[in-house]
User: Fold this.
Amino acid sequence: MKLTNSLLEKLDPRTKIISFLAIMLCMILTPITRMRDFGLYFLLILAIGFFSNITPRQILKKVCILIPFVLFIAMFVPFVKEGNVCWSLEITHWKLDITYEGVWTFLNIIVKSSLSIFLLVIANATTTFSDFLKGLDMLRVPRLLVMLMSFMYRYIFVLIDEARKLMRARSLRYFGSRYKEQFRAMGYMIGVLFIRTFERAERIYSAMIIRGFSGEILSVKRFRFSTMDILFMVGIIVSLVCIVSGLVNKIEHMRVSGAHLWQGL
Amino acid sequence: MARIIKVSNLNYRYPDGTTGLNDVSFEVEEGETMVILGANGTGKSTLFMNLTGILDGDGHIEVMGLLLNKINLKNIRRGMGMVFQNPDDQLFCPTVMDDVSFGPLNLGLDANQVTEASQKALALVDLQGYESRTSYHLSFGEKKRAAIATVLSMNPRILLLDEPTSGLDPRSISKFINILYTLKSQGKTLLIVTHDLFLTQEIADRVLVFSEEKRPVAIGNYKEILNNYDLLLKNNLVHQHRHRHDAVVHEHEHQHGYIHKH
Assistant:
């Protein structure tokens, strides 16, 4: 995705990492029964999305790619979880019970992960991977981990390309018989891929030490917290405190009772 | 001119027992372009690995007046840049700028100097505006040029180039040769490993020929070597070429990569 100059992109990656992590932590620790809070989190995330230049369509597209995975994992939970049966399904001698606890757990997984995915998609679209890594590095995440991620990001596609070439070379010479033999071929391929990767790693390391690498990844790009960062962070923290402490609820109750702003949620 | 590299009686054996280098001795003058010619597997790349101290062979190597050993290694690497054959090995950072600034940052320059050196290097290889590009998405020719920029940003006195033109199309090759000319005119010492005779003819001052016994068999002025067909033929750098003009079949020496007229 092409980066434009929205507020979120101008922010220091550290600001984004910290505040997004904070939101996700708060969200995950909120019990699912407080549905109204999740509505508020959703509004908060929408507000953040408003500061980026991505269209809702783009966000939704990406979210829709990821949600099926979560759905697939969570799908079976209502049937497996033990507890009070709310609905049972009988097909001849099979019996499937859906429990209240199961449904709540299902909702728990779906709601929290969808909101987190929303947030991550926004974060991903407004931060380049290298900036993200630099942010992590400056936040004192172990350098080894950061470097591992950096190399993975750089070489995963090279590796996939190599694997694809091997597969192609195999399929050009494979005519469909003796399929048991193919497992052996597959084993060889994995072996070759491993050796190539290993040797590539050696060459990369040589390339690094020739250019004076001594165990430290340095960077020209210097990030500094601007007033914008501070404002953003304060904004996030204040809204989180409001949501978590139920302050919003209280304010609402102080207003006209019976006509709650978030009644629908 | 001063002598900048001196190699004498260098031997290297790979851990599995195969000979990598067999009694290699030669000298390089400062500012000259030496092309090391040899067929595949004659130990040219192994020689580079030894010159940069990555492989540790037996023998005597002197670079910029310093004996190559553990103590001098850092200083030698400051003045000697090596460009690998496969640019994917050279470009290991997320963006081109990260890669180009990797060397100067490790040299301990401050941020402004690093940026300036990197910009200069990128301008030299005609890759301005590529700073935040991901190296994986560059074309092969661009990758090759980015790879050389990663070394140029360190402003080395000696440049080792391993097969710089392999896998490049003709336009990219001529662009690359232009870059090499610029470097040559800046007084840099270039050591180029190749079996590309076209490149040799374009850029070399002197030529060192490696035989399949993994040792140098000839050294001399580029004209002298390139005109010595027996030598080139014996060392697998040209091959007897047979072809047909209607009824007449004839055979003659033929250099790789040449389309010749009759």
Residues 198 and 257 of chain B are 7 Å apart (CA to CA). Chain B has two domains: 1-79+157-172+187-262, 91-155. The interface with chain A takes residues 49, 52, 54, 74, 77-78, 80-82, 84, 86, 88-95, 97-98, 101-103, 105-107, 111, 114-115, 118, 132, 135-136, 150-151, 154 of chain B (CB under 8 Å). Chain B has ten helices and twelve strands.
